[in-house]
Design brief:
2 strands, about 140 residues, mainly alpha, elongated, single chain, about 10% strand
Length: about 140
């Protein structure tokens, strides 16, 4: 069976991505703009509550899931940009670099499902910042 190619129209042109690459990068939901206010993943009240220091485990788990969602989609958007502008080899190198972040975030997101803490969520956000991604 021929692998499925998913086509994306970017401002730099149309690019094809093998389905397995999409699934490797995005384990949550594919979204063109994953920022919390656009995607509606979190409400303004939830973001405010988190930023004001909420310790609510349910909210912290939701924020952890959002951070993973945001990072996956931003990594995928970066991959598409590299693919369109620089070609597959450079796009694959970028993706290999970003997979280190996504792997660790997924591990932390699993921990958050079992019991999210502010420290765990902060670790996730700090990792994102080291890779140039700012979820908030």
């Amino acid at each position: 069976m021929t692998p499925l190619t998913i086509w994306f129209d970017t401002i730099w042109g149309r690019v094809g991505v093998p389905e397995e690459v999409v699934r490797k990068v995005v384990s949550t939901v594919l979204c063109p703009n994953p920022y919390w206010s656009y995607s509606r993943f979190l409400t303004r009240e939830e973001v405010s509550s988190y930023l004001e220091g909420s310790e609510d485990p349910g909210l912290l788990a939701k924020v952890a899931k959002y951070v993973l969602f945001y990072a996956e989609n931003m990594a995928f958007n970066g991959y598409l940009m590299h693919l369109a502008l620089k070609g597959r080899e450079e796009a694959d190198q970028y993706l290999e670099w970003m997979m280190g972040l996504l792997k660790r975030l997924r591990e932390l997101a699993i921990q958050a499902e079992a019991g999210a803490t502010r420290e765990l969520v902060w670790e996730m956000i700090s990792l994102c910042l080291k890779y140039g991604l700012d979820p908030f």
